[in-house]
Amino acid sequence: MADADLDVVIRQLAKQQYKTLMAAAKGRRDRYAGLAAKEKNGEAKARFKLIAKQTMEQATAAARRLQISADNAADSYARSMRNATVAAPAKQPVAKPLKKGTAKTKA
Q1: How do residues 43-88 score in pLDDT, each as one tens digit?
Q2: What is the pLDDT of residue 107?
Q3: Per the domain annotation, does 11 fall within a domain?
Q4: Could you tell me if 25 and 61 are in contact, meaning their C-beta atoms sit under 8 angstroms apart?
Q5: Closest C-alpha to 55, from 73, 75, 35
Q6: pLDDT value of residue 2
Q7: What is the DSSP string of 30-75?
Q8: Is residue 89 part of a domain?
């Protein structure tokens, strides 16, 4: 990855974070679904099912925001690097010439 552009690295990290977030959300959803299955009370069962559903909805929304943010950052970086290569190099400051009377001469 030493030669990889940073926009590619940004996208890869976001992909890893997306997978991690969704795996954690699925685990949490499964936990609530398990609690709903064990529950004998109909009201509590419905509540656990609703919590499981809302967990996935919230995690999906957060993952989507994470992905969009990473894509925006990667696109911005790639665009700035593209613009930097196209832009003209900055002018170098010109050295000021010395005044004639200030230089010492050997006789």
Answers
A1: 999 999 999 999 999 999 999 999 999 999 999 988 888 888 887 6
A2: 53
A3: yes
A4: no
A5: 35
A6: 45
A7: HHHHHHHHH--SHHHHHHHHHHHHHHHHHHHHHHHHHHHHHHHHHH
A8: no
